[in-house]
Design goal:
Two copies of one chain form a homodimer. Chain A has a three-stranded antiparallel beta sheet. The first copy, chain A, has one domain (about 5-110): Winged helix-like DNA-binding domain superfamily/Winged helix DNA-binding domain (Arc Repressor Mutant, subunit A). The radius of gyration of chain A is 15 Å and the shape is globular. In chain A, strand 2 (about 55-60) and strand 3 form a beta hairpin. Helix content of chain A is about 55%, strand content about 10%. Chain A has helices at about 5-10, 15-25, 30-35, 40-55, 75-90, 95-105, 115, and strands at about 30, 55-60, 65-70. The first copy, chain A, is mainly alpha-helical. Chains A and B meet through helix 1 and helix 5 of A and helix 1 and helix 5 of B. Chain A binds a DNA duplex through helix 4.
Chain lengths: ~130, ~130
DNA sequence: CTATTATATCCGCATATCCGAATGTTGAGG
DNA sequence: CCTCAACATTCGGATATGCGGATATAATAG
């Protein structure tokens, strides 16, 4: 269980709030997050590492991809904060735009590059991983 | 209404969490906070100014004293976050110690120096101000 | 007016944070 | 083995933050 200051510090950044907002819709690989956020990959990875160290997200490797998912709904503090945050962000235009971009990306197939590397020979990475416990 | 990042940034500091925890028990003047926190006055004032700019507290002057009070229960995000935070801090020993110190300080008269300056001639500053709307 | 008390703000200074570019690492394919 | 793609980490620099001491402001008492 992380200290409350670590939780709030992790959420005290706009890019990380955008990530949390997106992961609230289901787990995502880094490249898709990068696509939606429009930021350099090192930045996305760094923010994800910070969220992970704060206990807010967990990562799971699947081949070349690493999928991140929200994982803090089990501690009461994080659950309360994330619930309040989710309700609030639903009313903010910027975050809604991100959610829309995610929907569009999912429609034309998540992991925007996967079709280049997986010519329909393999089941392709799962979009909604069953469980995360890291 | 402050941006969510400002709210979380304001809460991403241990001293400020201690202040919020204390103010959740009612409004307090700076000198009493300083007494309980055991930190230099400039530090307490600086943290209070930051909390104020984040919209979490309001100040009200009464003679020489300035009383601070939590004031963010009106926005849904802040209310949700503060509620979750209050429940969480109730279980952390350090913050409970602060609450105990506040109780003791109230027993022997809040505003620990007031009796030196108010020899029972004036009603003395109120401990629980009726309403704050800053 | 002066003195005193409470609080706010300023000043360096140390440290932390954020960023993008560059480099490392890992896993799949050939 | 080598190559490539996804991701992680490191690097250097700009900016932000937290801190205590010093100083400024505000209000009250005399």
């Amino acid at each position: 269980m992380t200290a409350p200051t670590a939780l709030f510090r992790a959420l005290a950044d706009r890019t990380r709030l955008r990530i949390v907002n997106l992961l609230a819709r289901g787990s995502l690989c880094v490249c898709d997050l990068q696509q939606i956020l429009g930021q350099p990959q090192s930045s996305v990875s760094r923010h994800l590492a910070l969220l992970k160290s704060a206990g807010l997200v967990a990562d799971r490797r699947d081949g070349l991809w690493v999928f991140y998912a929200l994982t803090a709904w089990d501690t009461p503090l994080a659950r309360g904060v994330l619930a309040a945050l989710r309700d609030h962000l639903a009313g903010e235009a910027d975050y809604r735009r991100d959610a829309d971009a995610l929907s569009r990306l999912r429609l034309r197939g998540a992991c925007h590059l996967e079709r280049r590397r997986r010519p329909a020979s393999r089941p392709a990475p799962r979009r909604a991983p069953a469980r995360l416990e890291a």
